[in-house]
Amino acid sequence: MSTDRVVAAIDFGTYGTGYAWAVLDPRIRHKADRAIQDREDWPDADGVPSPKTLTALLLRDEEVLAWGHTAARLRAGLERRWHSEDVRAVEAGLPLASERERARHRYYYGMKMSLRGRDDPARDGGGRGRGLADDLGDPTALISLYLAEVVRAALADITRDGRYAASDVRWCLTVPAFWSEASMDRMRRAAVVAGLPDDPARLLLVPEPDAAALYCDVVGTTTGEDDDGPRPGLLRPGMRFLVLDCGGGTADLVSYRIGSDGSVEQLCRPSGGPFGAEYTTQGHDGFLRKALALRFGGAVDFEGLHLTHADQFAELAAAWERERDAFTVDRRRPITVPFPARLYASLSEGALSWMAEMRQNDVDDTIVLPADEVRAILDSVVDPVLALVDEQLARWDRPPDPAGAGDTAFLVGGFARSPYLRRRLEDRLQGRIPLRTAPRPERAVLFGAVHYCYEPTLLRARRARYTYGCECDLPVMDGDDPELVFKDDEGVPKSRKRFLRFVAADEKVPVGREVCQRLCPTTAEQTAITFTFYSTEEQDGRYVTDPGMTLVGTMEVGLEGAMHLPRAERGVDVYMKFGEADIQVRAVNVTTGAAERTTLGFDSVR
Fold this sequence. Notes:
Radius of gyration: 27 Å
Shape: globular
Largest sheet: 8 strands, mixed
Number of strands: 28
Mean pLDDT: 82
CATH superfamily of the domain at 6-207: ATPase, nucleotide binding domain
């Protein structure tokens, strides 16, 4: 039996992924004194320190060839070589020699976004060549391959000095707060395949804003450049606060309240969406797809050009992002983005002609974007975030009161560096609550996840996102469908396909709380009971066939050892454990004590 001696967190993001860890030390009494270590020197990152490497994967013959920044760099080199070989083959009148090699390689970036529901209208469909790979069907296998590399790298650091073994580590994995439990379940399964423990007590999932909230509590915050610095202990009993976690792929918003004992609990249901910084670059309304397409008049095969000039596109994207992250609300002057010479030289005559016609102030090696165009690109993700802010504050039990308990909002995540985003948020929150930015906001989720893994009881309660229950036969009620009514073995009228609720949507659920329902077989001949679990956005429901009911898992429990009892005494207690990022279920044969356990299998993806 293992004893946890180290806690480690993996912040698996759309744009980047990082890990951090801390040694469990009973002598440390204060959260701020925990020594958290992370990695900031990633291979092929051009020497730029960062808590994350690129969430990218390069496969050859379905095996991992490279990951992180190295995958992007190696893939760019391969594309350049293949392009040169193709040019020589065409000139010599020979078949393209690179086709077979290209078919052996596949490059993925942004796989995380494909864990969203297939019917999500925001799915981007970037695919193999360019943009976010968020339309991959089920990306679980790819994510497992990537996470396995991250886990190996993390364990190499943690076990380097020989004091700790892999079995000494308790892990925590971050997930977006607005994900359905179906997506979280797929994330957990991918992590287990990647080598993390198949034990909910040793592999915790934490919503990213929850982790960020704990980080803000530990390190304090600063209001800006004119502030005297971080103020530890800013979170006080009774205070309510909104966390806005704006990262590369997603924006998550969750509201919290500080309890009298200093614990943290969710105030209302999370919200969020695919409104991260990366969509200003790779999204349909972003720089690479919209701004460039406008200048080239549709005369460019971007997919093909990106394959042969991946490194120049990366250079172009990085130049845009530097300008984006310095852009301010009141700027009136255009921004200039250097256009790589090699990429410019590869454009067709039609593209060059169109570019010359609408150039305005552009020159051959520079793209000039008017300030209004930059604002439109940024607003494609900022405006939805502002709408979510209003939605969150409208759910509070009473209006924000910064003068009372000190209600406030915290901005974290990599996109928090954007002065444009900060100013738009400040303007939206003016007169309601102040906006504060955590120091090193790009570290907030990762380090907060370590704190959560260190002490999971810091977070006391969450809000149920859906109503959960199971299908069963219940006594007839007025209005029941006559076609579903039957009589059980004792002649009691029952109704089939009824929904038995365990917890209601938006209900406050203490972390670790178990809700129990005792159920019995329908007939005396039954030797097992199959439990079918459903969720719905409604507060309640009568039938599992009601609109909006979604099948989320099944479990079968045998009645061995109880068959000699009257049917009504062959009870099975079904427990659903809420409050964690995912839901644990156990069913106990009351007669024998035999138990079945599972994390809901989520057969349907929302």
